[in-house]
Design goal:
Blueprint (H helix, E strand, L loop, with lengths): L9 H4 L3 H22 L1 H10 L20 H6 L13 E7 L7 E6 H17 L7 E4 L7 H13 L2 E4 L5 H11 L3 E4 L1 H8 L12 E5 L5 H11 L2 E8 L4 E7 L6 E3 L4 E6 L13 E7 L10 E7 L1 E2 L11 E2 L4 E2 L4 E3 L2 E3 L1 H11 L3 E12 L2 E10 L8 H19 L4 E5 L14 E3 L4
Parallel strand pairs: 3-4, 3-5, 5-6, 6-7, 18-21, 19-20
Antiparallel strand pairs: 1-2, 7-8, 8-9, 9-14, 10-11, 11-12, 12-15, 13-14, 16-17, 18-19
Bound molecules: 5'-O-[hydroxy(phenylacetyl)phosphoryl]adenosine.
5'-O-[hydroxy(phenylacetyl)phosphoryl]adenosine binds next to helix 6, strand 7, strand 8 and strand 12.
Length: 434
């Protein structure tokens, strides 16, 4: 199949930069008028900045607009930022996040159609077509994972198996019996089931689509080695639409943003200035066509870099790098910035008896930060001589010290000791009350 055949909407995914900027400009002008006239929160914010809809003439004027934060969503909970009458809303979705109140997002039918289009484009990027059977282990409900994948699979005409998470044995039976060719779930859920998927050779599985939490290239390699499937990284957040804001293509060289719908900026989280291409910063999105709850310059807190060069796959849409983490996941421990993904990378590069199930626990004792890393290891080690376990502990300690730049106390534990979460994996417990 030629590259062109693997692109769902080549008009928009391969549009020239100038054409795209013109389209985004038109959409931004319309969006600003809609929010200024229909959402009192934005009328007030724009007035405070002395900006009127007429000041926005093209996409380059986006920098004049106010930011929106999660806090703003909380303060306007549940429907204060809605831009259309309630009767136009056909669905709400949301997220419980890992802390605080729900984030609730109202969608019009057009919002759902755009969302389906985005996930459909992503699934096409992974080479999926109407011939495929897509097994969805993301939760169905307020969380956008299950339904988002479902809408996308329907858009490309594939057969969806709406399983949700849980009951691994039944998942595996259904994957085998129904002939699943693609699997969508969180990377941590898959990691959990991998070892129980010994039957993978009997399966037709060829593609995995994973996201909702940060995961690493090492994890992608591990899944490929064990399951022999090609894994794709899908990104999204309910505030913007759900999964399908971006995904990597078969080049696996960054995640293509659905640029005609979502305008990205990568900013220095402190100065709010653009960091330019290929530099790490906070991802900020403006929803160009959204109707139910459009957002101007939404601060995602997700850390990535952006590349506007054309990809080998033919798409011109900009690519964001695999996520390093979130600004609020980053822990400053004894003055050093530490991300859970660094721990995952280090642990998986050790291979062998080390699993990717870990937990970072940060405490403060006598005014000094203390990092403990619990890691699950092969259970056979516990029946071996104690010296083997001690050797491994030393090796893990040295590896993490090298990767993080600080030392940590290592606790090697038996499989399934670390508590699993239903949805996104929880990797850090910070007991410092900072
Ligand atoms: O997690 C949507 C989703 C579902 C994406 C299924 C992919 C697959 P929320 O619950 O609103 O939405 O959480 C959004 O999850 O701001 C990121 O911090 C994180 N996240 C999502 N995808 C990725 C990814 C869904 N591929 C928050 N890599 C976002 C890293 C991700 N982090």
């Amino acid at each position: 199949m030629s590259v062109k055949e693997m692109i769902l909407d080549s008009k928009h995914e391969c549009m020239s930069r100038d054409e795209m900027a013109a389209l985004q400009g038109e959409r931004l002008v319309d969006l600003v008028n809609r929010v200024y006239n229909n959402v009192p929160f934005y009328t007030k914010k724009m007035k405070e900045l002395g900006v009127e809809p007429g000041d926005i003439k093209g996409i380059e004027d986006i920098v004049k607009l106010p930011f929106t934060t999660k806090e703003d969503l909380r303060n306007n909970y549940p429907f204060g930022l809605r831009a259309v009458p309630q009767s136009e809303i056909v669905r709400v979705q949301g997220t419980s996040g890992t802390t605080g109140k729900l984030t609730i997002v109202p969608y019009t039918q057009k919002d759902i159609d755009v969302w389906a289009e985005c996930v459909g484009r992503c699934m096409t990027m992974a080479g999926l077509t109407k011939e495929d059977v897509i097994h969805v282990c993301y939760g169905y409900g307020l969380f956008t994972g299950g339904l988002g994948m479902d809408f996308g699979a329907r858009r490309i005409g594939a057969m969806t198996v709406p399983m949700s998470a849980g009951n691994t044995q039944r998942q595996i039976m259904c994957m085998e019996d129904f002939g699943a060719t693609a699997l969508t779930c969180t990377p941590s859920y898959l990691a959990e089931t991998i070892t129980e998927m010994g039957k993978v050779d009997d399966m037709k599985l060829k593609v995995g689509i994973h996201g909702a939490e940060p995961w690493t290239e090492e994890m992608r390699k591990k899944i490929k080695d064990i399951l022999h499937i090609e894994c794709f990284d899908i990104y999204g957040l309910c505030e913007i639409t759900g999964p399908g804001v971006a995904m990597d293509c078969k080049q696996h060289n960054g995640l293509h943003i659905n640029h005609d719908f979502f305008y990205p900026e990568v900013l220095d989280p402190v100065t709010n200035e653009s960091v330019g291409d290929n530099n790490l910063g906070e991802l900020v999105f403006t929803t160009l066509v959204k109707e139910g709850m459009p957002l101007l310059r939404y601060r995602t807190k997700d850390l990535t870099s952006i590349d506007h060069t054309t990809c080998e796959c033919g798409r011109t849409t900009p690519r964001i790098s695999k996520f390093k983490g979130r600004t609020d996941d980053m822990k400053v421990i004894r003055g050093v910035n530490v991300f859970p993904t660094q721990v995952e990378t280090a642990l998986l590069s050790m291979g062998g008896d080390i699993s990717n199930h870990y937990m970072m626990i940060v405490d403060r004792e006598n005014n000094t930060d203390k990092l403990t890393v619990m890691v699950e290891v092969n259970e056979n080690l516990f029946s071996d001589e104690i010296s083997k376990l001690n050797d491994l502990k030393k090796k893990v300690g040295a590896k993490l010290k090298h990767a993080l730049g600080i030392s940590a106390e290592i606790k090697l534990v038996e499989p399934k000791t670390i508590q699993r979460s239903e949805g996104k994996a929880v990797r850090v417990i910070d007991n410092r009350n900072l």
